[in-house]
Write a structure and sequence with these properties.
The chain is α+β, with helices and mostly antiparallel strands. The protein contains eleven helices and 14 strands. The structure holds flavin-adenine dinucleotide.
Length: 312
């Protein structure tokens, strides 16, 4: 690990100002960032790491009319256990509860979960040994390499890594808004493969909070190889908004959470055991698996059906 300066922020705006030049990176719980710095996976390295945890009041979970306001520094364990989140945004509580292990949920924050970098073993290999597409290289090694955990819905700007943040599909399904120091971004437009980031944030932009519309019915399910602690192979969140329209969002299948319009159409007339099964088929009807990951298509199909069935 290389040396870096450590700055304790007192406000999100101060952190954003310090990070504006791109040489200072922000850190919340550090459960993701510190591993990437230790392994020196990037060609570039921060001169300063700005600790957001010292900002007061950015970890609250509150009701605000028809929505919940969840601070970016809210711990995943707090999100999972919050009665407000369980009652009004169940899919998010269920997703937070399935992240990693109790220790990581006590350290990791919702902001950090949403902003964590992609889990691609070529992207994350120590010492930048694969200078992949995301790091300015010409190709994505996963396209013809070992792609068993990669995208089944094609590439995002040449990258086949997947979004494996558990809370991200839940936030998209619930129609949440990401509030940063600069703007408000619908969760659906927040994610994607952009340089080392998994989102559209710019240098000097810090996530302050999430606004999550209260939603009567929502659910989340995750398939991972180990139940105790593991990233999703595929996860799925569904939510029924006040207009009764159902959103279906998959994770672990593309560089950003994948909203399946095909599945949503299949349940447009209402969610029943039969329409949920049809939605599973519809969701994967447009899949384009790579050489080693066709098995994920079956998992995605089943997970869409099962998660929708939770709404019945
Ligand atoms: C063993 C292990 C298992 C894991 N399993 C899972 C899993 O099953 N599911 C899952 O979803 N994740 C998993 N994770 C990934 C991740 O560490 C956690 O999800 C955690 O939520 C990250 O939060 P953090 O606060 O520690 O983020 P940090 O490590 O502090 O930050 C992560 C990234 O987000 C950026 N960032 C943090 N906060 C903000 C903010 N407010 N504004 C802008 N940028 C910000 C940082 O700059 C950094 O790039 C796992 C990690 C480990 C080490």
């Amino acid at each position: 690990m290389k040396h870096f300066k450590h700055l304790q922020a007192t406000s999100a705006d101060q952190a954003a100002k310090e990070a504006a030049g791109g040489t200072a990176w922000v850190m919340a719980g550090g459960t993701d960032l510190l591993g990437t710095l230790k392994d020196e996976i990037f060609p570039e390295y921060p001169e300063t790491v700005i600790d957001l945890k010292t900002i007061e009041g950015m970890d609250s979970i509150e009701e605000d009319g028809d929505a919940l306001r969840i601070g970016a520094l809210a711990k995943l364990s707090a999100v999972a256990e919050s009665e407000l989140v369980r009652q009004h945004a169940q899919a998010l509580a269920q997703a937070a509860e399935r992240v990693a292990s109790p220790t990581i949920r006590h350290m990791g924050t919702l902001g950090g979960n949403v902003c964590q970098m992609h889990r691609c073993w070529y992207f994350r290999v120590p010492d930048d040994r694969f200078h992949c597409r995301r790091k300015g290289g010409k190709t994505c090694p996963a396209r013809i390499g070992d792609n068993r955990y990669h995208s089944i819905f094609g590439d995002d700007n040449g990258c086949y890594a997947v979004s494996s943040h558990d809370t991200a599909p839940a936030l998209v399904a619930l129609g949440a808004t990401v509030v940063t120091t600069k703007r408000e971004i619908p969760a659906e437009e927040f994610f994607g493969a952009h340089g080392h980031r998994s989102n559209v944030l710019e240098d000097g932009e810090v996530v302050k909070e999430f606004r999550v519309p209260k939603t009567a019915k929502s659910a989340f399910q995750k398939f991972a190889l180990r139940k105790s602690i593991d990233f999703p192979v595929v996860n799925c969140a569904v939510a029924q908004g006040s207009d009764r329209a159902t959103r279906v969002v998959l994770g672990g299948v593309y560089a950003a959470p994948w909203r399946s319009k095909e599945a949503e159409e299949a349940v447009a007339g209402g969610v029943t055991a039969e329409s949920a099964a049809k939605a599973g088929e519809a969701a994967v009807s447009v899949a384009k698996p790579l050489g080693k990951n066709a098995y994920k298509v079956d998992i995605a199909r089943t997970l869409v059906k099962r998660t929708l069935t939770d709404l019945v």
